[in-house]
């Protein structure tokens, strides 16, 4: 049968402790990674939400600036109280001069008289301004409104976004002032928003049609206005989710995380697309850092445990040689394998005391048996020993006592034999001699009875030639 390879205590303890440590660190690392991954994703989502909100704030600020201009124009016309063409033209020309970024600046009264800055003739279009969406919406709601992209009446090839404000004299609406921004200027504005590398924003109108998108094919033209859901079906989920995030491929095939925010006044939607790999890169970085820290901690812990176990169990290396000498009968072997005041030190002290006790017992037993061997049966009895070792002292004392009794009886019988021998020499009476032999036989029987309890080795006698001749 093949012997199994023996494993040392140090190896067993180290192996089990390291296994428990590895399992503990692994479980803690996995839990930490799950928690950390969720936290990083939440932080990235919060970051994306903040970026979306900041972009929305900038768009809202841009619309507010346009609204401020139209409201100032409306206030000026109300204060002037005169809607003749010269007065109105002075107002709209002044605004156009101060705001060259606006494509058109104009006013239409409730009679349909249209006045446009920069000398543009609207009458040639043959269009009644009161039937235009910007006029009807401002008149309907009675306050500043934002108009979704539409084709300009004077420049049908240009898509405009309009901010319009009604002009009142008292409680009577007398007209509407408005300013236009073309799609290109909105694109330029969106490009000024600082998005992180790889991310971008786009703008949807109140009908969720695209106003501005990095893919120019999605931008509105006089021929077509593109619905965001038609070209990006995945947006339908996020547009209906009220603040949730979705992940889907964009027009370049890149996996993006989308976030949207709706502007309350205009009903427009600002959307930001963030690369999913940006999310995952932060998670991967966190995972790598956690794993590296876990490995470093595990290595340090394993090193410390290995060193500690080796140091604590080092005295055990000296135990086996000492025990080997003890097994060979050398009870004088010094026990000095430990120096620390711990359990191993206590073990050393107790083992040393045990060896000292055994050595004393052996010396006492050796002394008693040596005296008995030399015939001194009067040697003092062995003292009682602790525990089962007391059986040794009791057995030795019992043997000594029995031998003492037997020797005494033998000595007594020897004296009697001498007396009987002298009696035989002094008488010729057959009956008396017969009585003496009977007494000798009884004495011999008594000795045989006392020695019968002992088992002896059979004695072999050599027969000489003289004995053979005798026979």
From TrEMBL:
InterPro entries linked to this entry: dCache_1 (IPR033479), HAMP_dom (IPR003660), HssS/ArlS-like (IPR050398), Sensor-like_sf (IPR029151)
Q: What is its main location?
A: membrane
> What is the topology of this protein in the membrane according to its UniProt annotation?
Multi-pass membrane protein
Q: Which UniProt keywords apply?
A: Cell membrane, Kinase, Membrane, Phosphoprotein, Transferase, Transmembrane, Transmembrane helix
Q: Name one GO cellular component term.
A: plasma membrane
Q: What is its EC number?
A: 2.7.13.3
Compartments annotated for it: namely:
Cell membrane
Domain named HAMP is located at 310-363
Segments passing through the bilayer = 16-36
Reactions catalysed, as given in the entry: ATP + protein L-histidine = ADP + protein N-phospho-L-histidine
Alphabetical list of Gene3D superfamilies matching this protein: 6.10.340.10, PAS domain
Question: A single Pfam family, by name?
Answer: HAMP
UniProt cross-references to SUPFAM superfamilies, sorted A to Z: HAMP domain-like, Sensory domain-like
Q: Which GO terms describe its molecular function?
A: phosphorelay sensor kinase activity
Q: Read off the CDD domains from this record.
A: HAMP (cd06225), PDC1_MCP_like (cd12913), PDC2_MCP_like (cd12912)
Q: Which domain of life is it from?
A: Bacteria
PANTHER family per record: METHYL-ACCEPTING CHEMOTAXIS PROTEIN, SENSOR HISTIDINE KINASE CPXA
Q: What name does this protein carry?
A: histidine kinase
Q: Which organism is it from?
A: Pseudobutyrivibrio ruminis
Source taxonomy:
Bacteria, Bacillati, Bacillota, Clostridia, Lachnospirales
């Amino acid at each position: 049968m093949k012997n199994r390879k023996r494993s040392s205590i140090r190896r067993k303890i180290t192996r089990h402790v390291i296994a428990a440590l590895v399992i503990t660190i692994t479980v803690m690392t996995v839990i930490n990674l799950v928690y950390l991954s969720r936290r990083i994703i939440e932080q990235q989502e919060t970051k994306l939400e903040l970026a979306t909100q900041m972009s929305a704030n900038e768009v809202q600020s841009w619309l507010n600036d346009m609204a401020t201009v139209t409201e100032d124009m409306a206030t000026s016309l109300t204060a002037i109280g005169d809607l003749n063409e010269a007065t109105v033209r002075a107002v709209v020309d002044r605004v156009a001069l101060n705001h060259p970024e606006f494509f058109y600046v104009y006013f239409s009264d409730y009679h349909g008289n249209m006045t446009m800055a920069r000398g543009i003739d609207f009458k040639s279009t043959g269009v009644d301004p009161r039937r235009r969406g910007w006029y009807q919406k401002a008149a309907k709601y009675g306050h500043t409104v934002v108009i979704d992209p539409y084709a300009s009446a004077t420049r049908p090839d240009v898509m405009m976004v309009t901010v319009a404000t009604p002009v009142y004299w008292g409680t009577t609406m007398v007209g509407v002032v408005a300013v236009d921004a073309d799609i290109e200027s909105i694109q330029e504005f969106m490009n000024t928003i600082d998005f992180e590398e790889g991310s971008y924003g786009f703008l949807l109108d109140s009908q969720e049609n695209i106003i501005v998108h990095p893919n120019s094919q999605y931008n509105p033209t006089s021929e077509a206005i593109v619905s965001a859901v038609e070209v990006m079906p995945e947006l339908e989920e996020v547009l209906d989710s009220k603040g949730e995030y979705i992940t889907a491929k964009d027009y370049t095939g890149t996996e993006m995380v989308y976030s949207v925010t709706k502007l309350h006044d205009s009903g427009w939607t600002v959307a930001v697309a963030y690369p999913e790999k940006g999310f995952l890169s932060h998670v991967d970085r966190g995972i790598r850092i956690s794993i590296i820290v876990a490995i470093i901690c595990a290595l340090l812990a394993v090193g410390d445990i290995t060193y500690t176990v080796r140091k604590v169990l080092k005295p055990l290396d000296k135990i086996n040689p000492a025990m080997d000498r003890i097994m060979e009968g050398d009870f004088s072997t010094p026990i000095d394998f430990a120096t620390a005041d711990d359990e191993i030190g206590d073990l050393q002290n107790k083992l040393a005391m045990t060896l000292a006790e055994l050595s004393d017992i052996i010396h006492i037993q050796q002394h008693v048996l040596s005296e008995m061997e030399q015939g001194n049966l009067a040697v003092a009895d062995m003292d009682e020993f602790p525990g089962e070792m007391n059986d040794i002292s009791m057995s030795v004392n019992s043997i000594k006592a029995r031998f003492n009794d037997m020797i005494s009886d033998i000595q007594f019988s020897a004296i009697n034999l001498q007396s009987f021998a002298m009696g035989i020499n002094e008488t010729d009476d057959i009956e008396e001699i017969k009585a003496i032999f009977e007494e000798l036989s009884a004495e011999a029987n008594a000795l045989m009875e006392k020695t019968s309890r002992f088992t002896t080795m059979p004695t072999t006698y050599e027969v000489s030639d003289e004995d053979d001749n005798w026979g």
